[in-house]
Structure formats: structure tokens, C-alpha cells
Amino acid sequence: MAASLALMTMDHRQHHLQSIRADLSLVVYPLQYVVNIPAAVGNWASETLATRDKLLEENRRLRERELLQQMRLQTLFSLQAENARLRELLNSSSKINEHVLIGELMAVDQDPFQRRVVINKGKNDGVFEGQPLLDAYGVMGQVVQVNTLTSTALLITDPNNAIPVQDNRTGLRAIAMGIGESDRLDIPNIPNNTDIKVGDLLVTSGLGGHFPPGYPVATIATIKIDQTQPFAHVVATPMAHLERSREVLLVSQQSAVEPKPAAPVTERIKR
Fold first, then answer.
1. Separation between Cα atoms, residue 9 and residue 15, nearest integer Å
2. Cβ-count burial 130-141 (b if 16+ within 10 Å, e if not)
3. Which residue of 2, 85, 107, 183 has the lowest C-beta tally within 10 Å?
4. ∠ CA 135-113-164 to the nearest 5 degrees?
5. What mean pLDDT value characterizes the chain?
6. pLDDT of 213 strictly over 70
7. How confident is the model at residue 245 (pLDDT cuts 50, 70, 90)?
8. Closest to 198 (Cα-Cα) out of 221, 228, 217
């Protein structure tokens, strides 16, 4: 005991064992490193997993944010397109002398042999059977059924629909008939020698009293003449965007300014 104490005292004062300790530390260091490996690996794995979980959570939040931004962007594009359509529609209605009511399509008939649409305006809004239906580009059809809050319109392309038209260039009167296709109208009974050309604009003639005169209906797309037949095969393309328009105009043929009633016969005689 006394010898050990003396040896420690000499080492403390003269540092004789310092080199021995240095050599021992070199020998012990690998053992310490090996012993610390499990703890180091555990810490590294814990930090790695925590970082991975954090990155995954951050990526999830970023994907959700991107999806939300894309949805908002699509909504913005939709609103811009709707505003453009409404501006076109309002610009169209400003050129019409009759009363107009702006409606919106609610449903489209899925029957391939019918072309009908449901509108969100009905009897409470003043809609009546036979009322013309237009979009910003031309005639779409007319109302055939009126309910309290909604109404059903028959499009000009429906096989049961026929509309009196007039060639805007020559004044030729004809009938435009639907054939069940969204982009075609038949113009029957046109003699082979008639002055009609591809590109001619067909407008409502006003005959029959269902449509006011002068509204664009279609343009002549093809004319096929068979000399063995008395009539040409004429096909027209509707002006209205029947498969794309959502906002529509319901036109009333009453004048915006009601005419003054005529004076009684007896009063006119007195004058």
C-alpha cells in the first residue's frame, strides 16, 4: 500500500508513467471504439429514421398543398371561361330588341335519338312553351315543356324539330330539319338550280310565329347535286354551340316597350 502511494506521488511530481499511459490508451482505444459501435449505430439509425419520417411528412404536406393549388387554379380557369361566356351572352342580349331571360343548362337528355336540355328557369320566371332558346352565337331550339322551376327545350338538331329559315344572302326561304346529330341540319327540297352557296348564312325567317326573324341558325356546309334527282342534298352546320354552351337566352317576342293601345273607333271618328 505504501509502495503504491509512493509510486503515485512520484508520478504526480515527475510524470514517469505518462508514456505508459499513452501506450495503454493506444491499446484500449480500439476496444472503446468497438464497444461504442452499437450505441453509435443506434443513434445514427434513430436520427436517420426521424429525418426520413420528417421528409415523408413534409412531402405529404407539399403534395396536398400542390393538389389544393391545382384545384384552385382549375376553378380560376373555370371562372374565367364562365365570365367570358357571360360577357358574350350579355353582348348578344344587348343586340336583341325582345325581352330576354338568362338561364343555365341543368341536364342533357342522354337518349341518342333526342336532343333535349333542361333549363333552370320555369313558369315562375315567365318561361312559356314555344319560347325561343339561343346562346351567344345562334338559335339553339325552343321550349316544349314548362314546369314551376325548370323547363325542357327541344334543340334544333332533334329529329322532331323543323325551323323556317331564310338565306341571308339571297332571301331564299327553306326549312332546317334536325337529324339527331349535334353538328348537322338537313335543308330539304332545294332545287338543283337554286342560287345557294357553301358558307351562306341561314337566319330565322319569322314564318310560323315561333321564332323572331333575323336570328342566325346555321351556315351551309355542303351541297351535293345529283342530276337524276330534282333536289340537291344540302347540309348546314348550326351556329349555336349546342354541345358546349351552358348559359342560354330565353327570348320573349314581346317588345321591351309595350305599344300604346289603339284608340277606340268612336274616338278616332270624333278626331
1. 9
2. ebbbbbbbbbbb
3. 2
4. 50
5. 77
6. yes
7. confident
8. 221
- Does 141 have pLDDT greater than 90? yes
Is domain 103-255 given the CATH code 2.40.10.350 in the classification? yes
Contact between 182 and 158 (Cβ < 8 Å): no
β-strand pairing of 139-146 with 151-155:
antiparallel
Q: Structure pTM?
A: 0.61
